Amino acid sequence: MPADERFAVRRDRARASVPCPLAAAPAPSGVPLPDGLALRGRLATGARRPETPRGSGRGGPGSRTPRTGRGGGPRRAYERARRAWDRPLTAYYVILGSSLLITVLGLVMVYSASMIKALDISKPSTYFFGKQFLAAVIGGALMLLAARMPVKLHRALAYPILMVTVFLMVLVQVPGIGMSVNGNQNWLYLGGPFQLQPSEFGKLALILWGADLLARKQDKRLLTQWKHMLVPLVPVAFMLLGLIMLGGDMGTAIILTAILFGLLWLAGAPTRLFAGVLGAAAAIAFLLIRTSPNRMSRLACMGVSEPDPEGGCWQAAHGIYALASGGWFGSGLGASVEKWGQLPEPHTDFIFAITGEELGLAGTLSVLALFAALGYAGIRVAGRTEDPFVRFAAGGVTTWITAQAVINIGAVLGLLPIAGVPLPLFSYGGSALLPTMFAVGLMIAFAREDPAAKAALAMRKPGVRWKTMRRRVKKRPSGER
């Protein structure tokens, strides 16, 4: 007999000699068997479990959500991004994150662009960076203070800030007190290496005062009359413009005019009225530019690709050279060539050109994306609020930062005349950085005042989370839980 057949016979005999398990025997009437014995009995008697249809069990293919096709992935990603963007705290985080990233990147570029300039004037290489870092620390404290202040306190500070700013701007024109920098009589000497430009605070003062004025008139339903819409907003704005133009600062005057137009547009100024104010401002600007050879030369430098033989348009041409030599990813941080005396003001008005040379197209597009995100978040705050003061103030701050960024970058690219305005939060200058960071804190406070954002922030507080998530267990008489 073959070995396989002998093994089969032995196996059958062994199975026949095994006694029947207890579960196989019939249970006495009325006495149920334990679950474990019943289960073993069914397995011993050869009973099989009913087969589950394929795909209908837990975790099987039948329980999965039907796919929507190849386009489901991008569509789901788009829906998730849209839902994330519509969350109550999105504007709050975008304003905070983009402004901090612009400020930090600006500090890095100020150090890189100004080290040669500092050594040229016999100062340490960190001279300008140290001053900018100190201004950023003070500006951060002001931003935190503005973000924590209630809206009522911001409205209460509107008139004091305006009066102090006007007083300082008048003080600048007093001989012996005000000082001139680069031909502009717009500075106050504070002692040591520190100076103050009051006209930069005039932007913030006009926004707060104008927003409070327009909000009170809207509450009384007076903005339907053109007299109440223009007076006293336009005369006070023209007074600030006159004080600025006495010092010769055309760039700051352009930004202040843009803020005025932004407030009028948010207030619902009719087209004829808006066009009239715009036409008057354009006529005044044309007269001021026509009567100044310096401003005419700046206007003539738009779109140039090389300087004149006599040295004209030197700054505009070398700004284009810096951007062109950067390529896709730049020559490397600190490796700029134009900052070695070729490009005037590399750390102030033309810091965007040094950024393009050292960080390339990727760096400049990153800066543009951060400013675009900041501007869009500001528009969202202004569009979703029911408070007229918040709408006017948020719209004014957004107009200020966006218009100044467009004018600065447009001048570096050769698309606009060189106006001499810094890039907000990015260029060197403490007088420009302090009011801008306070204005960013203002928008953060407005984003926090939204009712949905308030509820979301309240739920994220540690005390509230602990109270809502902990289990409530009754105490025993002995005090144990």
Q: What is the gist of this entry?
A:
This protein is mainly alpha-helical and 481 residues long. 63% of the residues lie in helices and 3% in strands.
Strand content: under 5%
Overall shape: it is: globular
Classify the secondary structure makeup into a structural class: mainly alpha
Q: Could you state the order of secondary-structure elements as H and E?
A: HHHHHHHEEEHHHHHHHHHHHH
Mean pLDDT: 83
Percent in helix: 55-70%
- Runs in which pLDDT lies below 50 for 5 or more consecutive residues are 20-31, 33-49, 54-70, 464-476
| Count of discrete alpha- or pi-helical segments spanning 4 or more residues | 19
Q: How many whole angstroms does the radius of gyration measure? A: 36 Å
**Termini separation (Å)?**
75 Å
Widest β-sheet, arrangement of strands: 1-2-3
Largest sheet, in brief, is: 3 strands, antiparallel
Q: Would you report the number of β strands?
A: 3
Explain this structure.
This protein is mainly alpha-helical. Helices cover 63% and strands 3% of the residues. The chain contains 19 helices and 3 strands. It has a 3-stranded antiparallel beta sheet with strand order 1-2-3, covered by helices on one side. Strand 2 and strand 3 form a beta hairpin. Helix 8 runs antiparallel to helix 16, helix 8 runs parallel beside helix 17 and helix 15 runs antiparallel to helix 16. The longest helix has 34 residues. It is globular, with a radius of gyration of 36 Å. The protein starts with a helix and ends in a 12-residue tail after the last helix. About 12% of the residues have low confidence.
